[in-house]
Predict the structure.
Amino acid sequence: MAACARSEAVHRTSTVDRIQSKAARLQRIEHRLYNAPRGLRVADLAEYCGVDRRTIYRDLQALEEMGAPIWQNDGRYGIDRESYLSTIRLNLNEAVALFFAARLLAHHSDEHNPNVVSALNKLAAGLPDTTISSHMGRVAEIIRARPLRADYVRVLDAVTRAWADRHKVLIRYRAASGELTERVICPYFLEVSRSEPASYVIAYDDLRGALRTFKLERVADAELLGSTYTIPDDFDPYAHLAAAWGVMNEVEVEVRLRFSPLVAPRVRESVWHHSQRLNDTPNGGCELEMRVGGIREVRSWVLSWGADVEVLAPAQLRDEVADHARRMSEQYAVARPAA
């Protein structure tokens, strides 16, 4: 009896392993086909998955039965990218993680971007949980209701296409000062700001002969060019932005801030920068030390704490915050009546 029970257990385990193995293989085939615009031969897929061709034929049929738009031409198989919506296989917690990302996107976006709305609607259609799916759809509607800036969408589309296809792009860029210049840029990376609803492109600027960061909302026009470029192998966007407070990679400086006991608990709750060091002060406050890429972006964050923060270093940041405080004091000063 015991031997029989062990045999049945082994059989059940083997069956489960086969089912899981097939599910994983179907996902791999689906992903592989989607990323092969010219299609792949059955022999290629069989070698990739480590199975025989007959198994691949059965897998392709299974994918079709699951709704994947499989095409076949001259011995090659592929997926119709235009009509394709991948099946999202997520558990509840993974779906919530996506919903949080969508909410952050909604908070970050101050305008209607049709591509964002379309992406969120597709996610909503593919999520397994109806509650989260319905809320994802609501987020899409919230963004859809915002004003449409067609010029920004065109610029973003052009820069995105240039980045994906490695084509140079001609932009007309209006600096914060109002100066309008023409630049030919090679997009290396797209990034969003965590402190403002804005998008940036980190690009090699032919005019300056160096990497520059451009705010896409300031690009008046963007035109794809026929010439191509190559991103250097040693360019790592995440290393490039590692010290930045936001998107600007400038000379690193040591920033030291002293927070009052009133806000210290809030400061301790979060990791504001990967380099931060927190030390408690005797009065119940705390001091925050970190190395950031320049002070331009961190300054507005420091100012948001008002009188509950004191800049200890660097001197330039301390002077700029002090000057800002003086000007605010003058702006809100009320003339006192004479005695």
About this structure: The radius of gyration is 27 Å. The first strand starts at residue 40 and ends at 41.
